[in-house]
Structure formats: C-alpha cells, structure tokens
C-alpha cells in the first residue's frame, strides 16, 4: 500500500512539474521537478494537489459539454503537453 501511494505521489509530482514547466518559459521539466522535490513535503502536496485539482476541474467543465467538450479538452491537453 505504501509503495502504491509513493508511486502515485511521484507520478502526480511529475505531472505537476510538466504543467508548471509549460507555463514557466525559463524552466524545463527537470528543473521544475527538482524545484518541487526540494520543497517541504506539505508545500509539495499543496502545489501538486492544486495542479491535479485544476486539471480535474477543467475536465469536469469539458464533460459538461458532452463528448465534443471532452474531445476538445483531450486535443488541447495533447497539444499543450506534448514532448518538445
């Protein structure tokens, strides 16, 4: 159970680093991940939770517009967060 939670938190932190790096032009994903890892645990959880929560809210908003809304959301996620 602890291994699963650790794996999920690591994945969530990587997603948060990717999202933050895309909107912070002076930092790449690795620098953002290192910055997040250097923060105290509580602050890491708040930032990571906020980013994941924002993605969840945006997906629910897109779902309110049905399949077309979800398709547009998925396309935007792929375009914004594709590897460079």
State the gist of this model.
83% of the residues lie in helices and 0% in strands.
Per DSSP E runs of 2 or more residues, the count of β-strands stands at 0
Outline type: globular
| Strand content range | under 5%
Helix content: over 70%
Major pleated sheet: none
N- to C-terminal distance? 35 Å
Q: Provide the domain count.
A: 1
Mean residue pLDDT? 89
- Work out the oligomeric state of the chains in this entry: single chain
Helical element count? Answer: 4
Could you spell the SSE succession in H and E letters? HHHH
SSE class: mainly alpha
Radius of gyration: 14 Å
Structure description:
- By secondary structure, the chain is mainly α.
- It has one domain (2-81).
- Helix content is 83%, strand content 0%.
- It is globular and about 40 Å long.
- The model has no long low-confidence stretch (mean pLDDT 89).
């Amino acid at each position: 159970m602890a291994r699963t939670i650790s794996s999920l938190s690591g994945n969530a932190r990587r997603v948060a680093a990717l999202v933050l790096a895309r909107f912070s032009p002076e930092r790449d994903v690795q620098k953002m991940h290192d910055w997040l890892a250097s923060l105290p645990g509580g602050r890491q959880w708040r930032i990571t939770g906020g980013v994941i929560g924002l993605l969840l809210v945006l997906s629910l908003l897109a779902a309110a517009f049905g399949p077309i809304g979800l398709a547009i959301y998925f396309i935007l996620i792929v375009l914004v967060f594709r590897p460079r």
